[in-house]
Amino acid sequence: MKPCVVSILSFSLFFLSHFTTSLSERCNPNDKKALLEIKKGLGNPYDLITWDPKTDCCTDWAEVTLSYINNIRNLSGPIPPTIAKLSKLKFLRISQTSISGPVPKFLSKLKNITYINLSYNNLVSTIPPSLSQLPLLEFLRLDRNKLIGSISKSLSKLAPKLTYLYLGHNQLTGVVPTSFAGWSFDTIDLSRNMLEGDISFLFGKDKTTYEMLLDHNKFEFDFSKLTFGKKL
């Protein structure tokens, strides 16, 4: 019997995790315990009523979907630290809720994660440098929160696979690290912050960025030292 893949979509909270197999129940007991602690940490929302300790999370919890997103705003408080116990977690989305508190530093423990989306919440903190410790991260979305402070230089050490970075619609200040010049994003969103400085290093003939959102900041541009290919 193969390990089950549990896909849980609820109040825009989406977990994708691979669980190990047991003979009596396919759901790994440690993963099941962690999920139940997450449910408790979120205030035992009705939308997770099927997360019953007496049932198999690989079969009876397989998919929970909310059709009416407006009902999810009642979720509040910080993101439960129990999420860090899901060591094989690959996909995490907690979006369009009233979740508050900081962007958790414990996310750096999720070494298998490739996708993080914490957009459209009420998160208030700086961006934790510990996110640079995620070696497989491809997609990071922290936009539409109330994040403050500067963009840490350590973020430039994020996985080379990171191609989607959304930090727009926050309250970030300071300059964009010049080490970002080494990245070629598919999408980078820095819009509607209070960032400043010359960011011409994000441009050039070797850049392959498909979408770049930079509006509503205090940026400067000096293209005099850049090359964009042959002149017409």
TrEMBL record:
Residues 1-24 form the signal peptide. It is found in: Cell envelope. Keywords: Leucine-rich repeat, Repeat, Signal. It comes from the Eukaryota. Residues 29-65 form the Leucine-rich repeat-containing N-terminal plant-type domain. Belongs to the polygalacturonase-inhibiting protein family. This is Leucine-rich repeat-containing N-terminal plant-type domain-containing protein. It comes from Datura stramonium (Jimsonweed).
